């Protein structure tokens, strides 16, 4: 292979990216060396098995990926602003919409949600860690190297270009001969393994490690949604594993699963992809519902309305999510009977979702509402998400879908549910739980600026797309002619996208500003919260709870506060706390995964096999490792608790 | 984790005594649930593709009863001996446990040998992974099961070394128990492969 086949060449934008990547790497290395932070990086972060730090790393990665995916989005909007633009050529445009979709779903939305769940769930259930802290670190690092492998594609070897759905036969060797779609298959596989292990980890954590007295029906709503999400992950992700493995076989070893000849069936890919893909969108939306439930209840100062109905509707949505996948390809010839079945199941999802909307509205009714940033995101979610949901029901009608299918109407619909649902929830959750992560609040004034810029920009960007779709503009087209009359609405959409970009920049500035000047959270309970995470100090002590709390009702911490004592720690009752040891092995195993994946992408099988042997070595070392962790002494716990003002 | 992780319960069988062990065993059951989903997807793929033979041989032309029967008997017997190993472990007999584990993994290795020979035979007849969609799905489904069995053999060897080094402790007992769950699960998958791939292939 020649060097100019290995590196992507010939595009000014790519050269600029090359330069910025090299400069960023040099910058990071320089700063770490100059401030002598290498050891800190290794001891505090790369080897950590603490769920809170792992959660923070997930969120940092997600924000980076939001930047990458957002840049992709802005490049697309720039190209579409005016007719016959020459800013991007068609191939480059294909690559950008593919990476935009894949990154936003798998490397932005999922890790953001998983990051929040890492930080919050053990705190909400009164646990000191997750069931398998070591596995948790491995999950994170596998996700991270998967994301990095996917992200280097655009400078080394070339990006995938067959859409985030990677439909065959387009994604097969015949029509996509480069290494781009190998990156797709291998990188998603690696991070998918990490996600599956997270699902198992948190399911066991929630089932087995709740504080005494916390029955299932006394769990906070966010924990409930994570429990159900874990079940979705456990049954949906193996399907993706298989689909990607078959794709890898087709692309690397010329098997005939999805080919056009020798009996291959390309529709099999579409089915497998969406059997995973539809539960996947619920994997990112159900936790969002949980986040909004917590925030609405806290800032309306009321118990969540219809808790049980909420739980049952989550379970209902989770069940239905497995039997709607064909609605993604009504037009691909499944026949009237099949389409009708999937049409009805799809519309049925609107029922439990509608129940939840009314639950939030009735929680707000007669509440003493405080309009914090987190609450603004939650309030904006309700009407925006309803717009996305109602247009979803329009798309669910199979006969009518022939009109909407693959048009900008669809683009507008799923951005309304994914941004107004998941992204709003991520921002809301970030503002809400930020003190638990870093010990200070995000600035409210800047937060509100972000909110208004992003929320208004979002509507300006995506609302016109419904009309562009009805006017006939189809998705994934890289340019259009002036006579079609789509120009004015496209200009409006681009303006909205720029506003969203500015909102994102304000958010990043807010993170910097608040770290320097933000209000320190001395109480551990800045919002007058209801659930157990607010009973801890901010930032949370390494062991979370010096004494495991006793739970008597829903909203456990609220109940303690109403009883007049809050969560007090009796120093007499302290016992040494057992904690797991740090380990560098998850990080190193994941590095081996990176090289194994890289070898597969380029069919350098020697590299892949050597790296695979290192993975096996790592697993064997783990098996023979009998490190039992260590104990934190009572004296040290007392010192920590007095420092944070929680101790007597 | 907490002190509960070291909460020791004398009344339970050895592998269930620590809280950590109880969590690991439950987690492994859930992992097997995910494996069910994985194999179900592979079976679905096979059933969709198995009559799409292109220019290659059909299942009826290809499969031979003898080798498959030997593989089946070896693997089913190994599941039984694996059960005997756990039975010996519950009685606290290290030697019996090690002996039956050794028998189990030898039977597993025999299964793998016959399976590899079967695959080589097919390839010599010109039936490769690349020939048709039917053969792609056949090799990937049966091969995934075979890869699982191979991993199980290596895993069992590692646990036997640990048993020899450390004796029968709550930790090694838990490892034996988990690998036995894995082994029985692979046996169940094989029953489905035998029925849905080989029997169906030779009848339809």
TrEMBL record, chain A:
The keyword Cytoplasm does not apply. Its cofactor is ferriheme a; Cu cation. Its EC number is 7.1.1.9. Residues 36-552 form the Cytochrome oxidase subunit I profile domain. One of its GO terms (molecular function) is heme binding. Keywords: Cell membrane, Copper, Electron transport, Heme, Hydrogen ion transport, Ion transport, Iron, Membrane, Metal-binding, Oxidoreductase, Respiratory chain, Translocase, Transmembrane, Transmembrane helix, Transport. It comes from the Bacteria. InterPro entries: Cyt_c_oxase-like_su1_dom, Cyt_c_oxase-like_su1_sf, Cyt_C_Oxase_1, Cyt_c_Oxase_su1_BS, Cyt_c_oxidase_su1_bac, QoxB. The chain crosses the membrane at residues 12-35, 56-76, 96-121, 133-156, 183-204, 224-249, 269-292, 304-328, 340-362, 374-396, 408-430, 451-471, 491-512, 587-620. Pathway: Energy metabolism; oxidative phosphorylation. GO terms for cellular component: plasma membrane. It is a multi-pass membrane protein. It is found in: Cell membrane. The keyword Heme applies. It catalyses: 4 Fe(II)-[cytochrome c] + O2 + 8 H(+)(in) = 4 Fe(III)-[cytochrome c] + 2 H2O + 4 H(+)(out); 2 a quinol + O2 = 2 a quinone + 2 H2O. One of its GO terms (biological process) is oxidative phosphorylation. PANTHER family: CYTOCHROME BO(3) UBIQUINOL OXIDASE SUBUNIT 1, CYTOCHROME C OXIDASE SUBUNIT 1. Belongs to the heme-copper respiratory oxidase family. Cytochrome c oxidase is the component of the respiratory chain that catalyzes the reduction of oxygen to water. Subunits 1-3 form the functional core of the enzyme complex. CO I is the catalytic subunit of the enzyme. Electrons originating in cytochrome c are transferred via the copper A center of subunit 2 and heme A of subunit 1 to the bimetallic center formed by heme A3 and copper B. This is Cytochrome c oxidase subunit 1. The lineage of its organism: Bacteria, Bacillati, Bacillota, Bacilli, Bacillales.
TrEMBL record, chain B:
It catalyses: 2 a quinol + O2 = 2 a quinone + 2 H2O. The lineage of its organism: Bacteria, Bacillati, Bacillota, Bacilli, Bacillales. It is a multi-pass membrane protein. GO terms for biological process: aerobic electron transport chain; ATP synthesis coupled electron transport. Signal peptide: none annotated. It comes from Anoxybacteroides tepidamans. It holds the Pfam family COX3. This is Quinol oxidase subunit 3. Belongs to the cytochrome c oxidase subunit 3 family. GO terms for cellular component: plasma membrane. Gene3D superfamilies: Cytochrome c oxidase, subunit III, four-helix bundle (1.20.120.80). It is found in: Cell membrane. Catalyzes quinol oxidation with the concomitant reduction of oxygen to water. InterPro entries: Cyt_c/ubiquinol_Oxase_su3 (IPR024791), Cyt_c_oxidase-like_su3 (IPR000298), Cyt_c_oxidase_su3-like_sf (IPR035973), Cyt_c_oxidase_su3_a-hlx (IPR013833), QoxC (IPR014246), Ubiquinol_oxase_su3_dom (IPR033946). Keywords: Cell membrane, Membrane, Oxidoreductase, Transmembrane, Transmembrane helix. GO terms for molecular function: cytochrome-c oxidase activity; oxidoreductase activity. PANTHER family: CYTOCHROME BO(3) UBIQUINOL OXIDASE SUBUNIT 3, CYTOCHROME C OXIDASE SUBUNIT III. It comes from the Bacteria. The chain crosses the membrane at residues 26-48, 68-87, 94-114, 134-164, 176-199. Residues 1-202 form the Heme-copper oxidase subunit III family profile domain. CDD domains: Ubiquinol_oxidase_III. Its EC number is 1.10.3.-.
